[in-house]
Design goal:
Rossmann fold; eight-stranded mixed sheet; single chain; six-stranded parallel sheet; 397 residues; 2 domains; alpha/beta; globular
């Protein structure tokens, strides 16, 4: 339900700014509370009086124009349930992606810890620019929801991608956010992510290509579903996450963190790509070539974190393993779930170029203890994560 929700709308400079008047009207019509923050450039396209009349609130423009002792970028963050930036210009997208806080809107985006939605609108050439696309990917990695622009006739007189998404679509996306089932409410979920790094010396390590994106997507969606989430990751944690992040490097460090967190957890998702082996001896100083044609590094087996957690799990706990294979995917996955006694195995084919490691997309098979197999067709990792949680726990809602 969107009724009584606090919606903060950020408007940046662009011809599509006038369309946000209708978005404000839609939110107000559905009994939401709306406040507007606008850049000075935005006010070249829509007047403060119009925005104030529609929202029934003052328009916030200046960074420190507050009547109390709490700066606007703090008080508005505390007030808002979601932050919707529409239209989002290439300039503002770049600032937000890189933590630049030179106006009230960008300062709010930097300080805001709940869900941000961004609806870009710009010329096709700007939208397709590599720097802009890189900034968009950065925002997605920060769990910002990007409402993609549409293709159509643009104000510059050309046809192409860059037109602001329909106002009704933006409204529906935000409304759906509040209607998400809290299927994991009251549950503690631990998620591991990324590829472990096993040091050889101070500058070299043995690792793998796992980016941690799938694990982070699971953690994000579990949090949205109401869970108390802990993400144990080899990738750097992002400050805007509201759930607990623990950064580790090696398999042994991950094992210790998982043991500690799993003790009080209900569900463990072992998404991380944990190295099977590590160097027996880690050199204190950098290894020199010294005209040697060969370097022999003796490896020893790492503990199997998934197997160990399955051995110690209590009756009320579940362990979900991930299986990344380049051949015989289903066969190996079924063997793994039987051997390790986990509750589910989620298998994906890492030999594909369009899914798996470092990709924004995935296609997986979910296998249960009885070896029943469900295929989740190729989709974004965020959507695959949502589908996994719905498949496993939606029936409990």
């Amino acid at each position: 339900m969107i009724k009584n929700k606090n919606i903060l709308i950020g408007i940046t400079g662009g011809i599509a700014a006038y369309k946000i008047c209708e978005l404000i009207r839609l939110f107000k019509k559905n009994d939401a509370n709306v406040k507007v923050v606008a850049t000075k450039s935005a006010l070249e396209f829509v007047t403060p009086l119009t925005l104030e009349t529609l929202s029934q609130e003052p328009v916030y423009i200046e960074q420190f124009s507050t009547s109390d002792r709490k700066p606007e970028h703090i008080s508005l963050c505390d007030w808002a349930d979601v932050f919707v930036i529409a239209p989002a210009s290439a300039n503002s997208i770049g600032k937000i992606a890189n933590g630049i806080c030179d106006n009230l809107l960008t300062s709010l985006a930097c300080a805001y810890k709940k869900q941000i939605f961004i609806a870009p609108a710009m010329n096709t050439g700007m939208w397709e620019n590599q720097a802009v696309q890189k900034n968009i990917e950065t925002l997605k990695n920060y769990n910002v929801k990007v409402i993609e622009p549409e293709s159509g006739f643009l104000a510059c007189g050309t046809n192409g991608v860059g037109r602001l998404a329909e106002v009704s679509e933006i409204f529906d996306v935000v409304k759906k956010h509040f209607e998400t089932k809290k299927i994991l409410s009251g549950k503690k979920v631990v998620v591991t992510a990324g590829g472990t790094k096993e040091n050889i010396d101070p500058v070299r390590y043995i690792g793998n290509y796992s980016s941690g994106k799938m694990g982070k997507a699971i953690a994000n969606k579990a949090f949205e579903a109401g869970a108390d989430v802990t993400l144990i990751t080899t990738a750097a944690a992002h400050k805007n996450q509201e759930y607990k992040n623990i950064t580790v490097n090696s398999a042994l460090e991950m094992l210790n963190a998982v043991k500690q967190e799993f003790e009080s957890a209900d569900i463990l998702f072992m998404t991380a790509a944990v190295a099977d082996y590590r160097p027996e001896n880690v050199q204190e100083n950098k290894i020199k070539k010294e005209n040697k044609d060969e370097l022999v590094v003796k490896l020893v087996k790492n503990p199997d974190i998934l197997a160990e957690m399955c051995k110690i799990k209590k009756q009320n706990q579940q362990v979900i393993g991930f299986c990344a294979e380049s051949e015989n995917l289903i066969e190996y996955a079924k063997s793994k779930i039987t051997k390790k006694n986990c509750d589910y195995i989620i298998a994906n084919d890492i030999s594909r170029k369009d899914t798996g490691f470092s990709s924004e997309f995935n296609e997986v098979f979910v296998i249960d203890k009885n070896l029943n197999t469900t295929k989740l067709e190729k989709n974004t990792k965020e959507n695959i994560a949502a589908k996994i949680l719905e498949l496993l726990y939606g029936k409990n809602d």
